[in-house]
Amino acid sequence: MSGESPRKADAPLRIVRLANFVAPASGGLRTALRELGKGFRAAGHEPVLIVPGERHTDRDTEQGRVITLPGPPLPGTGGYRVLTDRRRVAALLEELAPDRLEVSDRTTLRWTGRWARRARVPAVMVSHETADGVLRTWGLPEGAARRAADALNTRTAHTYSKVVCTTEFAEREFVRIGARNVVRAPLGVDLTSRRPSLRDPAVRALHAREDDVLLVMCSRLSVEKRPGTALDALAELRRRGVRAVLVVAGDGPLRGRLAQRARTRRLPVTFLGHVSDRGLLGALQASADVCLAPGPAETFGLAALEAMACGTPVAVSASSALPEVVGSAGAVAADTGGGFADAVEALLERPERERREAARARAECFGWGAAVEAFLAAHDTATRVRPAGPPPVVPADATARVPGTDSSDGLAKARGTESSDGMAQARGVDLPDATARARPAGPSGAGGAEAANGSGLREGVG
């Protein structure tokens, strides 16, 4: 494969994506993989997703080809599986011969970055969580978590051509170590399937009385999500005299412990488990007064954005990326029950119509179209693939119209499509490096692309 000539930036690409820790039924990562795959396919590319499963499967879906390889379940994670057979994964990658590699796991799959360098395939790692944030939620002291995260992130930045971060918050831990091959690409929300009109009085009446405050949390019930904070917030609100009830949509290893805590404290909590009906889940989010997102290590928070698309404001952890995502349409809370109770009360003080319209308006800044465009820019390829046919005729004086260029490839250089670049050479990849940084458009956080720095780490780091 190393002897192949590079494809043009607007040619169809086979984009092979690898992911671990995908929830068996739902979750933000599964949603992101699906929506990005659909977008890649609609743009004319060939996405292939490889994930762990109970057995081998290979099927064509709306998001492209999806291959599952047998992977053992991780104890205590509520169903997460991992790809552990490196030889089998490597053989499959050789067979697929990808033009681009996209990896959504910085730990157990980091070896694929080395495979990509040997195969001369540009590879990106997508940072779906902050390493130090996850380590802290698992009980590691802040200083130790930071040192461990810096070591891990330094190796990751050296291994991959690019690191994709969905928010500035997620990018900071790589900036801290001097990584210069980081690009930013936001995720998105389905603004059609999540909308305020899903609000359903019958759904609300099922869980709350007319004068109750209905709180909803859509989250995986695992330690890094800190779901217990929602129960603490409910207890504090009721102590303050607020007639609040909580509905939890999601499952995970902490469900039994949380249910026992709610019974012991006599808290009005309904645990729905995994809700497979997306329409019902949307109706629940739209019918709530406030949604809670207590996870301190979130780097984007798709569930929170879905709630806002339904017109429901969200109280979010101050330690996460969500303050950046929700903006003034949400409320930022300290990572305690009291902090979240304060945030809920602050949201309820706003006129209902005003807070619901603000939530929807903020969500409309994050469409999946912008996310797909940003991720394809990170892969140095076009959002729309040029149809087959003769190449367009470029006027002889085209380069003269591009300031600062005096050679025949000036136009290509101005567009970031030149074929030799320091990063590509350092990685052993003779492919274009239009190192695009997908930046938010104004305050929306859902923006286009601008030029970024080259790859690698600053001198003296790593």
When the domains are counted, the total is 2
Distance between the termini: 30 Å
Query: What is the rounded Rg?
Result: 23 Å
Average residue-wise pLDDT: 82
Poorly predicted sequence stretches spanning 5 or more consecutive residues? 1-5, 386-462
Q: Residue share in helices?
A: 25-40%
**Which term fits the overall shape?**
globular
Query: At the first level of CATH, what is the class of the largest domain?
Result: Alpha Beta
Strand coverage percent: 15-25%
Q: What's the total count of β strands?
A: 16
Relevant CATH superfamily of the largest domain: Glycogen Phosphorylase B
Number of helices: 17
Q: In which order are the strands of the major sheet placed?
A: 3-4-2-1-5-6-7-8
Major sheet summary line: 8 strands, mixed
Global structural class:
alpha/beta
Q: What is the fold named in CATH at topology level of the largest domain?
A: Rossmann fold
At CATH's second level, what is the architecture of the largest domain?
A: 3-Layer(aba) Sandwich
Could you characterize what this model shows?
Helices cover 36% and strands 17% of the residues. With 462 residues, the chain is of the alpha/beta class. Strands 3-4-2-1-5-6-7-8 form an eight-stranded mixed beta sheet, sandwiched between helices. Helix 9 (255-264) links the parallel strand 10 (244-249) and strand 11. Helix 1 crosses helix 15 (368-378), helix 4 (131-137) packs antiparallel against helix 5 and helix 8 (228-239) packs across helix 13 (337-348). The longest helix is centred in the N-terminal third of the chain and has 18 residues, at 142-159. It is globular, with a radius of gyration of 23 Å.
